[in-house]
Amino acid sequence: MKIFSYSASFKKWFTLLFAGLASGVQAQDLQKSVAHIGLVYPLSSNGTHADRYSNSFSLHLLAGVSGAETGFSMAGLGSVVRQDAKGLMVSGLFNTIGGRAQGAQLSGLLNRAQSARATQLAGLLNVVSHETQGVQLAGVTNVAGTGKAVQVAGVGNVSRQSAVQVAGVFNQSEEVHTQVAGLINVAKRVKGVQIGVLNIADSSDYSIGLINLVKNGEKRISLSTDETLTGFLSFRSGGRVLYGLVGLGYNLKQPQQSLYGLEAGLGAHVLVREPYRVSLEAVTVTLTDFKKREYLRNSLRILPSVRFAKQWEFFLGPTINYVDFTRETSDDLRGIYLWSKQGTKHTQGLYLGVTAGLQIIL
Fold first, then answer.
1. pLDDT tens for residues 69-80?
2. What does the pLDDT look like over 85-120, one tens digit per residue?
3. pLDDT digits (tens, 9 = 90+) for 113-152
4. Same-domain status, 233 and 344
């Protein structure tokens, strides 16, 4: 029977764990083991030399250590694999692999590998330091290196290169195809689409958001008005094709009502022949006096424009609008009705209008 020092063994356990979290290990020849069963390192069938074995099957009540895994591994708390792991790893808290992960890693908190061609599912965090292929699903955050990973997280995703990033709050990548975030996307090069409230990129033709700060894109500030004589100061920003807009306004047709305006929407340059171009915009406009008067309008705008003096652009075009306003709001805040319906509290209608404005290209 082998006699060992418990303090030395547990010191080795923590060394293996944190070394595995920090960096990969050099490959070495491992002994083969069909099954590795234990309570917690080093109380297992492979004992104090567990990190020198490659196992086809591993099962630990609390936590285990191995040199490599080639089939199935399960631990109540966590597993530490010094080299590569293939197959399925399931742990209550964490899986950490010092080499390459292939297959699937499932844990309650953390999955960690140096490189991966795998599916990682964690309640808190997935981390891959280098090449990443496959899928990362995390309750909070995914971190990946280069590759074509698909990252889905409740809070945020971070990578040097990814195929798809989907997050509840933010995404960050140097090179990515598609980013979808509840709040902000940040990237250097976007090959596909960015969808978020705020999108930031060096290069992105298809940014869908209210504010899109694209280095090689376009940013414009405009003054405009429409058939209701509502003036808007607006900011348009985006890439070569798609852009977003936000604006603040005030109705001049009925100044006694003091109606303040807000507009937000998306636009696309559908035809460009410098200095002329045609843009389509889908915009929502709301007017209110912050009391009883409320006015909501959804508009589709067709905006031909001409650029002059390098940075200035004039636009003028027709609009089709759906309007809904309260009884206290005047009925003359509209154009030519195509259809209307008057209720006890609200009036609805579909009408034709016009929008014109002048903008400076920053």
1. 999 999 999 999
2. 999 999 999 999 999 999 999 999 999 999 999 999
3. 999 999 999 999 999 999 999 999 999 999 999 888 999 9
4. yes
The amino acid that residue 361 corresponds to is I
Q: Give the C-alpha separation, 59 to 48, whole Å.
A: 16
Are the CB atoms for 287 and 230 separated by under 8 Å?
yes
Q: What CATH number has the domain bearing residue 222?
A: 2.40.160
Q: Which domain holds residue 167?
A: 131-215
- Residues 348 and 324 occupy one common structural domain: yes
Is pTM beyond 0.70? Reply is: yes
User: What CA–CA distances, in Å, run from 7 to 10, 12, 39?
Assistant: 5, 9, 17
Q: Which amino acid is at 57?
A: F
Structure tokens given for 187: 């990237």
> Residue 257 — very low, low, confident or very high, per pLDDT cuts 50/70/90?
confident
Q: Report whether the peptide linkage leading into residue 318 is cis, meaning its omega lies within 30 degrees of zero.
A: no
Separation of alpha carbons 171 and 115, rounded Å: 20
- In this structure, what are the phi and psi dihedrals at residue 154, rounded to the nearest 5 degrees? -70, -30
Last residue of a domain, one of 215, 247, 271: 215
Those residues whose C-beta lies under 8 Å from the C-beta of residue 300, and which sit 6 or more positions away, are: 280, 281, 282, 319, 320, 321
- How far is 210 from 268, CA to CA, in rounded Å? 13
Give the DSSP per-residue string, 128-161.
E-S-EEEEEEESSEEEE-SEEEEEEESSEEEEEE
CA proximity to 179, closest of 167, 143, 188, 134: 167
Indicate the length of the chain as a whole number.
362
The per-residue pLDDT for 147 is 87
